[in-house]
Design a protein that fits this description.
Shape: globular
Structural class: alpha+beta
Number of domains: 1
Largest sheet: 6 strands, mixed
Number of strands: 11
Strand content: 5-15%
Order of helices and strands: EHHEEHEHHHHEHHHHHHHEEEEHHEE
Length: about 400
């Protein structure tokens, strides 16, 4: 297996190799070794391949990983050449492929192109824009304090399973008007799809739960994203409604949980975020979104025809995956993180995340609530003993164990 410490094991990738030319061994993004040290892999990739790298998303599923910042901006802002619709690609993909549920066609803005994308995007953006950002602080406080009360007397906790995930989950349910029982099925299905753990069943659970939510909101509308989608002038069908919600939850549960947890790890292990004159939560979030974004590799497009980019031929209808993590750390754009919003963590171009202000606010307030309640919290083990979950898309800790002085319940 290729490792970041052995870059010479990479084989050069010819721009237009003849049919019989040997092809380089693709880098397996699904491997535990990649999860343990992605930035070491990105550095080795850059030395051997430049901006475009042959990878596998799961065994036998080839793709091209974009690790050059300017190349990623070019590709993601060229929807005519690089379309987000995967239907031609997926015709030859086996049904049990672990990453198929994450990449397959859905009638939503993330997996469509042309006029269909314009229609879905408008419905989603308008519905999300109806969220009152000023209410988020109080909503997160009402969710965070009860959750902190479940462990504050113990003196120890896992900040992912006991804090970041349940707070994220609770907020998304409120945002879309989803009752907890339906939301639990959504969360379970999403986790199965992200980790490749029976992704087909995960997809079934996920879509089935959202169908129940749409049915419920037709009978009991509210001030929420689902109701606004139902009432939107684009008159989406039930199937289309479900798959707009697929995007919202898919871009919410895992990435937002990881944004909170990974930023907490940065703040708990870097002396710049402690002491009398310390960097702020906003500084930490901006740096994390640059250096180690929670959705590390995504922004998937498919060349409509063989396309030559940076001297490399990209096969038609094969996934081109943007590495937000590698692009943000491209040496050609190296600079200061504080106050700099030029990172690609939210994507770029017509498929950029429409809910980035919401996600940023949720993470900011969730982190501040935790430190207000437990200011002496610290990581319970050396950082090099923490485990990162394998997977081609996310940057996600398995656990974030912490210890602190036991505290009485908050009110």
């Amino acid at each position: 297996m290729t490792t970041p410490d052995n870059p010479s094991s990479f084989v050069g990738w010819n721009a237009a190799p003849p049919p019989a030319a040997p092809q380089p061994a693709p880098v397996p993004l699904y491997a535990p070794e990649f999860a343990a040290d992605p930035h070491g892999f990105y550095a080795a990739m850059r030395r051997r391949f430049g901006s475009l790298v042959p990878v596998e998303l799961s065994p036998g599923i080839p793709a091209t990983l974009v690790i050059g910042y300017r190349t990623a901006v070019q590709i993601n802002n060229d929807p005519e050449r690089f379309r987000a619709d995967p239907r031609i690609w997926e015709k030859d993909i086996p049904a049990d492929c672990p990453v198929l549920p994450m990449l397959q066609y859905r009638p939503n803005a993330l997996r469509s192109a042309g006029l269909a994308h314009t229609r879905y995007r408008k419905a989603s953006v308008d519905s999300i824009d109806g969220i009152n950002l000023y209410d988020i602080h109080l909503e997160i406080e009402q969710m965070a304090i009860p959750q902190i009360n479940t462990f504050c007397q113990d003196g120890e906790a896992d900040l992912i399973s006991q804090y970041a995930l349940p707070v994220t989950f609770a907020y998304l349910n409120v945002m879309v008007g989803c009752p907890a029982d339906i939301g639990q099925q959504v969360a379970q299905g999403m986790a199965m799809m992200f980790e490749g753990n029976d992704p087909g069943e995960g997809n079934r659970l996920f879509v089935g739960a959202l169908a129940e939510l749409v049915k419920l909101k037709r009978l009991d509308p509210g001030d929420d994203v689902t109701t606004r989608l139902l009432n939107h002038a684009e008159t989406l069908t039930d199937e289309e409604l479900i798959h707009q919600l697929v995007t919202i939850y898919g871009a919410g549960i895992e990435p937002l949980t990881n944004l909170i947890a990974n930023t907490l790890l940065l703040m708990l292990t870097d002396d710049r975020f402690s002491g009398a004159v310390a960097l702020t939560t906003r500084d930490a979030l901006n740096e994390l979104l640059f250096k180690d974004p929670p959705l590390a590799n995504f922004g998937i497009t498919y060349p409509a025809q063989p396309s030559r980019v940076d001297g490399v031929w990209l096969p038609a209808n094969q996934p081109v995956v943007t590495s937000m993590a590698a692009c943000n750390n491209d040496p050609s754009i190296a600079g200061q993180y504080n106050g700099n919003n030029s990172h690609l963590a939210w994507g770029t171009g017509p498929h950029a995340c429409p809910a980035q202000d919401v996600a940023y606010s949720v993470a900011h307030y969730a982190i501040d609530q935790l430190f207000d309640a437990l200011p002496e919290i610290r990581v319970a083990c050396p950082v090099d003993q923490l485990t990162w979950r394998p997977g081609p898309f996310h940057r996600s800790l398995a656990m974030l164990p912490v210890i602190f002085r036991p505290s009485r319940f908050l009110f």
